[in-house]
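Subject: Interface between my chains keeps coming out wrong

I've been trying for a while to get a sensible model of this assembly. When I model each chain on its own everything looks fine, but I need the whole thing in one frame so I can look at the contacts. Pasting all components below, labels as-is. Any help appreciated, I'm running out of ideas.
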Amino acid sequence: MVARIDSTSDRVPVLRRTWVQISIYGAVCLAIFLVPVVLDNDFLLNKYARYLVLGILAMALSLSWGYCGILNLGQALSFGLGSYCMAMALKLRTVPVHTGEGGLPDFMVWNNVQELPWFWAPFYSMPFALFAGIAVPVLLAVLLGWFVFRARITGVYVAIISLAALVVVNLLIIDQQRYTGGFNGITDLAQLEILGMEFDAYSSASYYLVATVLTVCLFAALAITKSKTGLIMQAIRDHEDRVRYFGYDVAHFKIFAFAASAAIAGIAGMLYTIVMEFASPTFLGVPLSLSVVIWCAVGGRQSLLGAMLGAILVTGMQGALSESETFLDTWMLVMGGVFVAVVLFLPKGLAGLVETIVEHLFGQGRAARAATGKPAAGKDVSGTGKKAEEAA
Amino acid sequence: MEFVLQQFFTGLSIASILLLVALGLSIIYGAMGVINLAHGEFVMLGAYTAWALQKFVGLNLLPSLVVIFFVVAILGWIMERGVIRFLYERPLDTILATWGLGVIMQQAVRLAVGGELRYVEMPSVLSHSTSFLGVELSVYRIFIFAVVTALFALTWYLMQRTSIGMKLRAVIQNRDMAACFGINADRIYGLTFAYGAGLAGLAGALVSPLKSVSPEMGTTYVVDAFMVVVLGGVESLLGTVASAVLLGELTGAIAYVQNDTVAKSLALLAIVVLIRFRPQGLFVSKVRA
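Reply #2:
Try treating it as a single job with all components included. I did that and got this:
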């Protein structure tokens, strides 16, 4: 269970112990599920669902960056591709204004496209779209990862390559207006319908959908980090060469982390289209991609939950202040300052801070491990739960 | 023939602006290993200083260049002393910290003077065009080309022929050993960063008459400049020049055949492939370390 290879201490910190982690994660997810019970406002629920989706995105980055040391500046690429897959499927379920039932989507008519392009056709099937929303980002991530990690490219170069890949796809989507809607993206979508359930963006149904997916993704990611693969990923983060000397195929694990992160980001992208009711090139823009890195760093890149809450907290505050433009500008200024301070003084983000405090309070004078673990967990569950409430 | 020349000069003009922005970045990255994502904001600040000097002081662009260099250099120096020097052990984190600093600068400018586009007037002596080998050329673009050449020569001279450049090269090779010989590495780093920032400021001031000035103008430059530096190879000034010319001519040529978007995507893809096979860059100066 000692996650860090460099760690000289044989004690496992309170918050790193599996069952404590599971209960904290469970409590946060429960708190998220309880929000619609106390809040009966569809507009606000839609807004919160949006923050939760961005939380999933940040969590995905934490998996590759915090746990495997791959700083992916192009995380929005997977997110945007997932979002476009969902948007294409939902677009085909609308009745086109110009051509009637089964005709071409409106923007293609405006661009003089005569027939539906071949890559749009399979999106008539919803299961295919759901599959593609995950498979396309994963496939791209595996290709890029294979290309990059096989050559033992590390650090800064990975960051630059991932950023360049994002810019290329973004430029192409904007350029191919005939097939992608260009700058405007894909708008006027139908509502998602699965198994007879309808998911209106402004309803608790969509909120619950997002919350459920978030819970599943969070625990799936947690399971990955606790598995042997996850431990090797963390070892690679701490000292890549040593892992290689042990005979592990480092590239293999890095590609896995990169692809797993892309899968979760793709899922988040699909949810984002459902919640926002459109897809736009800004979903795979450089600003969003860099923001994800900020959220992750502020919340704590080495904690899945921390990264997620970081995203919810930052975007939540941004949303609250965005009513006035001056406020938003000032907020961005403050945010830049906070970010610099976090990088300088809290390399592990807010999650790291909480961990240090909990360790300080409960980690000392511990004779029997089991006895001290309980109060520590109880304390933190309420603490983190409160933070989630505030963020929401 | 004229057409080829025209195309060549267009590429050269793109290249000189690329090099202008990339030169400062190359020095900071090459010498200190710091990925300075705030570099674009230094460019933006240079452009805004030019605008402010023209509007409030009535200073022409040419004399204000000196002021701009020092203003932005001092800002860079403060940034290095205040933030960057704590991060030399964590190079990946410099990406994050400098990006945060960039956001601060961008927002500060937006709050101070507003987000609308600003325009800087071209010096009237340079605002006409001339004919060279049968091709019409803007004098201002020739001027930029000349300034870039001069700045490059100056930088090379500073690095290779002055005592401060020698100290910098010593610090790059082995910081601790250099410190043992009595070189104040902190001071050298501070000065290097300030010089790189000052160059970025000059770049911003020089491009300001060609493009409109806005708080987010830096972002477009920083990505391009990065590609130039990475392609050229760290620690290699000549490599930076070669890759700027290569990229400039390449984008110019592809943009003519296809369009700007395709040109840019292809250039980016080419760089990705290049990094994959030559992470050390195209041109590497052999250093005994």
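Reply #3:
Confirming on my end. The first strand of chain B starts at residue 129 and ends at 132.
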